[in-house]
Structures are given as structure tokens and as C-alpha cells.
Amino acid sequence: MDAELKDNLMGALEQVIDPELGIDIVNIGLVYDVDLDEDGLCTVTMTLTTMGCPLAGVLTDQVRVAMSDIPEVKDTKVDLVWTPAWTKDRMSRYAKIALGIR
Question: Which ranges carry the MIP18 family-like domain (predicted)?
């Protein structure tokens, strides 16, 4: 997968907003990787801020919808992982400023 396509995929994921925080999942640092195979299967490897997050289903559905806007993507698999664990250090500068975190 070329860098431009990966940028497009990450850009689509920036449209997925965490309803609790009001910031997209990329800037929060929830997305660990995105990959697209030759058959058009997009695999999004991501985590959640907490293991028992009640929004897991909502966020994974929104990821699938966001990826469906990319012509190269035929299907999307969301791989929720818990290692490495999410910490606020994964957040972008933008997210930290928006949430008042130093």
C-alpha cells in the first residue's frame, strides 16, 4: 500500500469522532495501524480508552462506514487490541490542547 492511500485511509478515520471526548479516534491515539490487502480488505487495528468501553460497537460501526467511502476498500475488519494499552501519551498535541491535558 502506498503512502498516499494510507494517508487517505487515516484521513477517513479522522472523521470518526469519539462521542464522549468529541475528538476523532486518530488524534486521540486509538488507531494503531491501518492496512489494505490486494483483495480490498481493510484492517484497522485500534484500541479503546478502557477495556469496558460501552462505545466499542458504535466506534467500530463508524470505522466501517468511514472506510466504505474509500473506493479501494471492499470490506473492513476492525481488530480491537489491548496491547499496548492506550495512554494519554498517544494523544496528538491537538487532542491534548482541546481536552486541556498537559
Answer: 6-79
